[in-house]
Amino acid sequence: MSTSSSTVGQSITDRLKKTVFRFDTSDTGELRGFQRKMFGERVWQVDDAYNRWLFDEVPDRDADGPQVWVCKRQGRIVGQQCGIPFRLKARDREIPASWANSLMVLPEWRMRGAFTPLAEAQLDSRPLAMAIHISDSAYKAYSKAGWIDIGALPAYVFPLDTRRCLEASSLQGRMRTIGAIAGPALHGARIGGHLLSRATGARFEEIGRFDGRADAIWRRASPHYPLIALRDLTHLRWRYDAIPCASDYRRFILTRGGEPLGYVVLRRETWRKEPCLAIVDYLCEPKWLWVLLSHTLRIAATERATALICRTLNTRAERTFLAMGMMKVPDRVGFPVRVMAHAGPDAGIDRDEFADRGNWLLTMGDGDASFLMHNTLPETAGLQPEGVAVQG
After folding, report:
1. Exposed/middle/buried for residue 39 (C-beta within 10 Å: 0-12, 13-18, 19+)
2. Which Gene3D superfamilies does the record associate with it (predicted)?
3. What span, in angstroms and rounded, lies between the C-alpha atoms of 103 and 106?
């Protein structure tokens, strides 16, 4: 009986897998119609320029084509699963990996065997799959499927204008008093960091696009982080210079005596209608983080930002963040940016090593996390996203 049941189950699974296909350009029109129905009209998922950038121009693209799979039932598209291919540096080796992206099924076809074969198509494409900025429902599904829970990216906030931050926040009573007292202390931390930066002789330079110094920074800094997605020149140029909304990002390089030490990528955001500056991505050796942050704080102050915000998983840096006066926001505030991983048999990873948060450097520049936070395209020509809104 068990053998028969197993055979029947495998037969059903095989039939369901045959309804999933890698995207073909002949399906473009129908797929855009499906996406508009599921996501809306003015979002990046339905924009041709974004799709070309994200799936056709991405470095390390699959030889079989873009990581876009569709499920067809009764001759029409009823679901999709996408992936963003990348390489993860795991200590001294690189693992081909993929960020799970935009798994959607038409409501009338849910609970009818479309989700699983779509998800498995992406899992089968690379030894390692990862997901970031996961919804509650997806988190539950991934947990049941045996994904590794890496946890949420902590949010660090430096209130450059404590009065406006407190007025915009939900802090009450004693917390407001503490916040008022903290203002001078935070200002002192900022000034102290700036003086330290000047003493080192480091130079902070804004650049229009990434150049060859990015590779030097990667070689210098990456050995300090056991688990980190590849951030070489090719990746950074694609991620920040080639993206259709490239003008939303500001790029800075930290150098000393002409030697590249680190970089930071900034973007304007709003938090409860207050103008803020967000660190989308950064990389440097841990010993240079204080200097990199002090220069970034100076830029934020010049921009008259209410606060500087950084969502990142980097336990090596937490002491520096807190020492500089940045406040760690609890995960329960706002929408937690969760991260999970699924390792296939060829990944050759140790689950405990992946589950150890101390091994990771993750930022909002990884996967599709930052895309989801500026999802609406403006009505004007050019299709460049408006300023993003931080949830919380």
Report:
1. middle
2. 3.40.630.30
3. 11
Specify the pLDDT at position 346.
87
Tokens standing for residue 34: 């499906």
Cα(10)–Cα(231) distance, integer angstroms:
41
Q: How many CB atoms lie within 10 A of CB 169?
A: 19
Quick one: average pLDDT of 49-65?
93
Q: Which residue has the tokens 């500087």?
A: 308
State CA 200 to chain mean position distance: 31
Give the pLDDT score at 137: 81
Q: Give mean pLDDT, residues 74-99.
A: 95
Q: d(Cα 169, Cα 176) in Å, to the nearest integer?
A: 10
Provide the pLDDT confidence category of residue 221 given band limits of 50, 70 and 90: very high
Contact 268, 257 (CB under 8 A): no
Phi, psi angle pair for 133, to nearest 5°: 60, 55
Q: What is the tens place of the pLDDT at every residue in 5-51? A: 555 455 667 787 889 999 999 999 999 999 999 988 878 888 899 99
Q: Which bin fits 304, alpha (ψ -120 to 50), beta or left (φ > 0)?
A: left
Task: State mean pLDDT over 313-332.
Answer: 86
Round to whole Å and give the CA distance between 1 and 10. Answer: 14
CA-based angle 369:331:171, to the nearest 5? 115
Distance CA 313, CA 332 (A): 16
pLDDT bin (cut points 50, 70, 90) of residue 67 is: very high
Mean pLDDT of the chain: 84
Residue 182 has pLDDT above 60, yes or no: no
- Residue holding tokens 């440097």? 284
Confidence of residue 197 (pLDDT cuts 50, 70, 90): low
Tokens coding 51 = 């799709």
What 8-state DSSP symbol labels residue 360?
Answer: B
Which residue is listed with tokens 């996390």? Answer: 369
For residues 149 and 265, what is the distance between their CA atoms, to the nearest angstrom? 27
Contact present, 367 and 131 (Cβ < 8 Å): yes
DSSP 328-370: EEPTTSS---EEEEEE-TTS---HHHHH-GGGB-EETTSTTHH
d(CA 392, CA 371): 17
Q: 355 and 149 in contact (C-beta within 8 Å)?
A: yes
3-state percent breakdown (helix, strand, coil) of the chain, nearest 5: 40, 30, 30
Please list, in sequence order, all residues whose beta carbon lies within 8 angstroms of the beta carbon of residue 13, skipping any fewer than 6 positions away. Answer: 117
